[in-house]
């Protein structure tokens, strides 16, 4: 069957995923700017943690590519503006256009729950199948747009906070001070942020990147004579890394080359490879221990009781490795940042109570407790699709990290993570563009589920934090499979030595 017309594609979200996917569709962005988390969910001190050359579009290199510093969030937004201007994307982007609802116009019996995805396995239906409700600017009316294909790029972070649950009567309502989620702190201007922290007893709940940056901002605001310490309340410790150099060796050698990823399990590996992988387990553990030994030597982890119980590998495999800001432990040594470990905590009138009964006084409690990306998706997707987002493992099954086998004519970009999310988003967008051009067909729904489940099994085998849906230990294999499906060469270096020992980044997937 010949396609009669160009498909009408709508992208929801103007962060890096939405921009990477933008080819010729309409992009609806809820806020007044592109950039996503880098514009609306960053503190003054937030910097990229991925090295600059790994976080760039393959066809738009950073001007200062060789600059070893990590770009600030403002630099990233500027870079994205440059990209949108260079490729004339502004004509496609509708700012201040929030998608409030997505309706399915197709026949559910025929579309989702069949042997083939979508209409006979084709990415583009014969007639519009989705209707998108958009509220623009300050207007209260919803405008409806029909389209053939929707690309969901609304992001895993930001917009909807993950809030801790408290026993009845021990929640924030009894606390006399101020409680704020890290997401709301991002919205404050410099003056208000500093006023909120200076001379105040602050508790920061959490120990991931947002919590670490927040504690540091708090310590810096309290350097004066009236300064008060900031206390971090930590449930789960994670490994933090001061730089991308371990005992003098570049970090990429440990996880980002074909040779290093050979040690880790991957989906679709045969019996021989599974056996080899099993035999190489001590070497894999050795790499993790080697990095842990460096971190314990370089950072005062034992002094502050901050050495995690789980191996470094598991944080890396779940994309949770945070780069530590330079002066974090200097502030701790000066007493401006303190640490308390507690598996549970709740409020009292003057602060928070830890599981051993310790009462911490606080004027302000920051919840750096993360975001609920699935809830965000559920808030716009219609039934029955919003009920299909998680499998029994609590992970969204996505074929090639992009297609949900039971949600037809829709793709998700930005939901699986890797060391560079820009890299993951761009390659998947290239694959998606070819799918929409019908250059290849998707396998059956059952086969797509099979592939997604095998990936989830590998993640479960690799890390207890598998729900974060991160492919960092088998990212090259993931890209290989995508390339093969697009009809591209999967081994993309000039020679065997580079193929084995140099890292893969976006430049390797240049068209
Ligand atoms: C503090 C922090 C540090 C990070 N550091 C790194 C790092 O070093 N390296 C790395 O690779 N990744 C990092 N990440 C992950 C980061 O989220 C990704 O790199 C990337 O920016 C995600 O882009 P996205 O487009 O998928 O989502 P987002 O950036 O969240 O963009 C989603 C966009 O969708 C819009 N939107 C949401 N709902 C709607 C709606 N209903 N209608 C219309 N528009 C909507 C939002 O306004 C937003 O602009 C970090 C994240 C955070 C929060």
Automatic annotation (TrEMBL):
SUPFAM superfamilies: FAD/NAD(P)-binding domain. Its cofactor is FAD. It comes from Asparagus officinalis (Garden asparagus). InterPro entries: FAD/NAD-bd_sf, Flavin_mOase, Flavin_mOase-like, FMO-like. The keyword Oxidoreductase applies. GO terms for molecular function: flavin adenine dinucleotide binding; N,N-dimethylaniline monooxygenase activity; NADP binding. Keywords: FAD, Flavoprotein, Monooxygenase, NADP, Oxidoreductase. It comes from the Eukaryota. Its EC number is 1.-.-.-. This is Flavin-containing monooxygenase. Belongs to the FMO family. The keyword Cytoplasm does not apply. Pfam families: FMO-like (PF00743).
């Amino acid at each position: 069957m010949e396609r009669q017309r160009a498909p009408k594609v709508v992208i929801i979200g103007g962060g890096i995923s939405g921009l990477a996917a933008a080819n010729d569709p309409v992009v609806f962005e809820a806020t007044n700017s592109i950039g996503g988390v880098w514009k609306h969910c960053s503190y003054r001190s937030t910097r990229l943690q991925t090295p600059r050359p790994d976080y760039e579009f393959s066809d738009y290199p950073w001007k200062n590519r060789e600059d070893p510093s990590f770009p600030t969030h403002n630099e990233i937004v500027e870079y994205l503006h440059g990209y949108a201007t260079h490729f004339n994307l502004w004509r496609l982007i509708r700012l201040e256009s929030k998608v409030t609802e997505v309706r399915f116009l197709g026949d559910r019996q025929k579309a989702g729950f069949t042997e083939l995805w979508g209409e006979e396995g084709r990415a583009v239906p014969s007639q519009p199948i989705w209707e998108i409700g958009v509220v623009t600017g300050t207007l209260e009316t919803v405008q409806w747009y029909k389209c053939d294909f929707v690309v969901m790029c609304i992001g895993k972070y930001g917009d909807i906070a993950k809030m801790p649950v408290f026993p009845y009567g021990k929640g924030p309502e009894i606390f006399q001070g101020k409680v704020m989620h890290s997401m709301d702190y991002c919205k404050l201007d410099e003056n208000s942020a500093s006023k909120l922290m200076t001379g105040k007893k602050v508790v920061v709940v959490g120990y991931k990147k947002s919590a670490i940056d927040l504690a540091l901002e708090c310590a810096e605001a309290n350097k004066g004579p009236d300064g008060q310490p900031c206390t971090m309340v930590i449930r789960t410790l994670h490994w933090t890394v001061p730089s991308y150099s371990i005992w003098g060796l570049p970090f990429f050698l440990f996880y980002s080359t074909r040779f290093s990823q050979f040690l880790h399990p991957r989906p679709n590996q045969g019996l021989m490879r599974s056996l080899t992988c099993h035999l190489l387990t001590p070497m894999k553990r050795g790499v993790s221990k080697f990095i842990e030994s460096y971190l314990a030597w370089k950072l005062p982890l034992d002094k502050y009781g901050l050495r995690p119980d789980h191996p470094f590998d598991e944080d890396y495999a779940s994309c949770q490795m945070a780069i530590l800001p330079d002066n974090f432990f200097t502030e701790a040594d000066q007493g401006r940042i303190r640490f308390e470990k507690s598996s549970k905590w709740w409020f009292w009138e003057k602060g928070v109570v830890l599981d051993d009964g310790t009462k911490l006084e606080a004027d302000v409690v920051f919840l750096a407790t993360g975001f609920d990306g699935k809830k965000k998706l559920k808030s716009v997707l219609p039934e029955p699709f919003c009920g299909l987002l998680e499998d029994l493992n609590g992970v969204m099954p996505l074929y090639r990290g992009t297609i949900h086998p039971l949600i037809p004519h829709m793709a998700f970009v930005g939901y699986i993570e890797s060391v560079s999310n820009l890299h993951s988003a761009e390659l998947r967008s290239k694959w998606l563009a070819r799918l929409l051009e019908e250059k290849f067909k998707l396998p059956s729904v059952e086969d797509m589920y099979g592939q997604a489940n095998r990936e989830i099994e590998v993640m479960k085998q690799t890390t207890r934090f598998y729900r974060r849906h991160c492919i960092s230990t088998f990212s090259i294999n993931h890209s290989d499979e995508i390339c093969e499906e697009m009809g591209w060469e999967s081994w993309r270096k000039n020679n065997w030595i580079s193929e084995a020992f140099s890292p893969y980044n976006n430049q390797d997937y240049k068209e």
